Amino acid sequence: METDFRTAVESNKDIVYKIAYAGCGNAADAEDIFQDVFMKLLESGKKFESGEHLKRWLIRVTVNQVKMHRRREKYRKTVILDGTEAADSSAVCDTAENKLIRSAVLELPEKYRIIVLLYYYEDRTVKEIGRILRLNEQTVKTRLHRARLMLKDELKEDWSND
Amino acid sequence: MTDRERIKRAFESISPSEELVGSVLAAGSRRTAAGTARKRRLPATFTAAAAGLLLAAGLGAAVSGTIDFKSVFGGYVRVADDTLANSLMGQVSNVSYKVSDDDYMITVTGVTGSKNTLMAIAEISRKDGSPVVDSFVNKPQSDHLMDFDMRFDISGFGSYGSAGGGIGASVNEKGNIGIFLDISSERALSGKTITMEGVNFYPGELYRDFLNENQIGKSITKDHRGYVHWNGGNEPVDISDESVMGLPLEWTLSFKYTASDKALAVKKYVMSDKNASESVSFYQSIYHINTDPDGISRLEDSFEYESVCTVREIEISAADIILNVSYPLSEYEFSPEYSVMKSVGNEAYLIRTDGSRIPLKIGSRTGQSDEENMYLQIHLECMGEQDSAREFIDVDCIESICINGTVFHVE
């Protein structure tokens, strides 16, 4: 059980964290979501048919947790917005181009961000993304198309829309 | 380089720290060793802002003397009986504060609430007794306007899913600054140390407008912040385009809150096979939002949706009612196209032993979901029938609670 859990964490830590980060846009909230997702895995006692099945489940739970996080913030009465983000130590030494691309992706509406990450980073097909996010394929295509237009508009020559 | 390669490279460095992964693996080991799969959560790695940033010219501890409920909380919450009201005053201990200017002090005026609710009032005053408002000075916006900040933190809660509520400040009748904290939580607040802190005070609409204009595109933080309202004083506040009245002050206050025995008393309904009435309809307003490629959202449609909830537990205290329910996730719950409002169209009230009713208002909600169900904790507050003012009650007089027509007996 412990070995299984360790394997599950080690194999999926990056994608879970990246989706959490893309979803909420800052490291502090991404860390909270990361912990919650793997706690859910522990609590679920769920048996998975394969590593891919586990990964899809974790991605789905991460997306849910991102949405729950945003919803929970909405419920709070006296919350205002603020520009201070937790320091993202992992990205401090990154290149200017990487920061520019990342920033453009993070500026996208949330529903586009995660699709972009799954499509471009995770190499998921539109069909797979639809299954994971419970969206029909056309919706995924439309959002991907809109996201590309926004990225092209923001990044100009740094984005080729290939 | 292709777009795909660009994205991969851009996100390659976004990865969890070794400490974070280690904490999750350690939790897994503990859980395995314990042989159970109990809920929930890891200690969060991040806590709210550190008090150590303060320059701390003043350091001390103060709590006000014996005071009655009405004089402190009369403007915020009503209690029918004075004896009951005073029995709901909580205890304050381990008070400490720091301020950046040694001429100022902070006093906790009073606390009340229940196990899961806390109302606290504190006052920032000058040691020489002169009104604080006399020390407000004209400041160019560029100097301090961006620095205004108020927040609270609860010991041991970490940063996630901790508490909902608000913190605010106003100028009180003595011309000092009153700090008002009103929070509720899914976890016990009684016995916890509460820390509040802030930087600078600015009265008036100007600052609020400034915040509203500049919030677009920023992330929501986990911290709670408040506004300063200018309530008192006969002197008009001089706010021009170039300057705003303000008080430069960095402060932090912490204290331990302990609810009174009366405030901790509860009556409960717990789901059991013997009780047939464990499901209740819950109405939600669904808003269909369409967002165009430019990011402009429009309301396409709205309609009522009925969920059948399983009521798992209800806990009634003097200050709040906590309702734990679960229901199957609907197609609207996490859809980005829909916004779900849960407080509309529902009717809930307490029934006293004499048959009279106390209307309830739905407050904050927290929850989590698995792939099939939403598990929600709903916080309800009592309100007066005449003016909807918040009310604290005597739980001994409560016999049952009615939610959308279904009655649950409590004991």
Describe the structure.
The complex is a heterodimer of chains A (162) and B (411). Chain A is an all-alpha fold. Chain A is built from seven helices and no strands. Chain B has helices at 3-12, 18-34, 69-73, 82-87, 141-144, 205-214, 261-264; strands spanning 58-60, 78-79, 91-99, 104-113, 117-126, 137-140, 149-154, 163-171, 177-185, 193-201, 228-229, 243-258, 267-270, 279-291, 297-316, 321-328, 338-341, 348-352, 357-369, 373-383, 390-392, 398-403, 406-409. In chain B, strands 2, 13, 14, 15, 16, 17, 18, 19, 20, 21, 22 and 23 form a twelve-stranded mixed beta sheet that branches. In chain B, strands 1, 3, 6, 7, 10 and 12 form a six-stranded antiparallel beta sheet that branches. The longest helix of chain B has 17 residues, at 18-34. The chains are: A mainly alpha (162), B mainly beta (411).
Helix content of chain A: over 70%
The overall pLDDT of chain A, averaged over residues, is 78
Distance between the termini of chain B: 69 Å
Number of strands of chain A: 0
- Summed up, the helix count of chain A is 7
Structure summary, number of beta strands of chain B: 23
| Residue runs with pLDDT of under 50 for 5 or more positions of chain B | 34-65, 140-146, 204-243
Rg of chain B (CA only)? 24 Å
Q: Biggest sheet of chain A, in brief? A: none
Biggest β-sheet of chain B, characterized? 12 strands, mixed
Query: How many alpha or pi helices of chain B?
Result: 7
Work out the helicity level of chain B: 10-25%
C-alpha Rg of chain A (nearest Å): 16 Å
- How far apart are the termini of chain A? 44 Å
Work out the largest interface and the residue count of each chain: A-B, 84 and 70 residues
Strand content of chain A: under 5%
Q: Helix- and strand-based class of chain A?
A: mainly alpha
Question: What portion of residues of chain B belong to β-strands?
Answer: 35-45%
Shape of chain A: globular
